[in-house]
Structure formats: structure tokens, C-alpha cells
Amino acid sequence: MRVLGLAIGLGAIAVTQAMGADERFAKSLQMLAPPERLEQLCGYTAMARIRKEDKNFRPDRTVANAMTEPRVQNDTIEVKGGAFRSRGKWFTLSYSCTATPDRLDVVAFSYTIGPEIPQTQWASYGLWQ
Predict the structure, then answer these.
(1) What total number of domains does the chain contain?
(2) Fewer CB atoms inside 10 Å of the end CB: C or N, the chain?
(3) pLDDT digits (tens, 9 = 90+) for 84-127
(4) Which residues, 6+ apart, have CB-to-CB distance to 106 below 8 Å?
(5) Residue 124 pairs with which residues in a beta bridge?
(6) What are 10-50's pLDDT values in tens digits?
(7) What sign does the CA torsion over 21, 104, 58, 5 have?
(8) 76 contacts 98 by C-beta, under 8 angstroms
(9) Are residues 113 and 58 in the same domain?
(10) Nearest Cα to 99, choosing from 29, 33, 42?
(11) Are residue 9 and residue 71 in the same domain, yes or no?
(12) What is the pTM of this model?
């Protein structure tokens, strides 16, 4: 009985911490110019979705322009040559992300994870440990 209570308590703490982080992120978005806001919002969404949908990854960074520049049209960003870092390794990432006109919320998002990027190529893509 105590173990269950502890597990539920720890789960509640983790959810509260995640909600706090999301609130801080939302507030920080409002301080950015709209073009930067779109890239940051969609990069954050990529990490959150990957973390939630694939337990093999724990992303902590994204780079939208690692291999190619993203394409922005209106409130949509298309990333074909991006990357994300998980557990000290970098992986290729492509995604399409459409935000609301104020660029504070995502309305459509899809992504594809590609292969691991060899460490010998990190510097050429502006990636770091």
C-alpha cells in the first residue's frame, strides 16, 4: 500500500514539474519575435512528441537547421535537415509544424526520425556534445 502511494505521489510530482516547465516555456515564447517563436515552439513540440511516443529516445535539444535551412511559409515551418540530441547522441530529424497565427500553439505536427549522425560529422553540422 505504501509503495503504491509513493508511486502515485512521485507521478504527481513529475506531472507538476512538467506542467511548470510547459508554463515557463509558454511565457518565454511570448518574449520572442514571431519568426523565432515558431522555430522554438516547433522544436519544443518535436522533443515532447518524440519523448512521449518513442521511449528509446530522451531528446534534450533540437536544431532545425543542422543540415539544411528550414522553409517557413506563413505559420508553417518545414524542417528537412534538422537534428535532435538524445542521451548524448544526435539523430537526423524532419518535421512539419503549423502554429496558430500568434505562434503560441501548434495546430498540426508530423515528424520523421532518421539515422544517428556519426560524431565525426557533428562539428560540420554545428552540433555539440
Answers:
(1) 2
(2) N
(3) 999 999 999 999 999 999 999 999 999 999 999 999 999 999 99
(4) 41, 42, 45, 97, 98, 99, 100
(5) none
(6) 333 333 334 456 889 888 999 999 889 999 999 999 999 99
(7) positive
(8) yes
(9) yes
(10) 42
(11) no
(12) 0.81
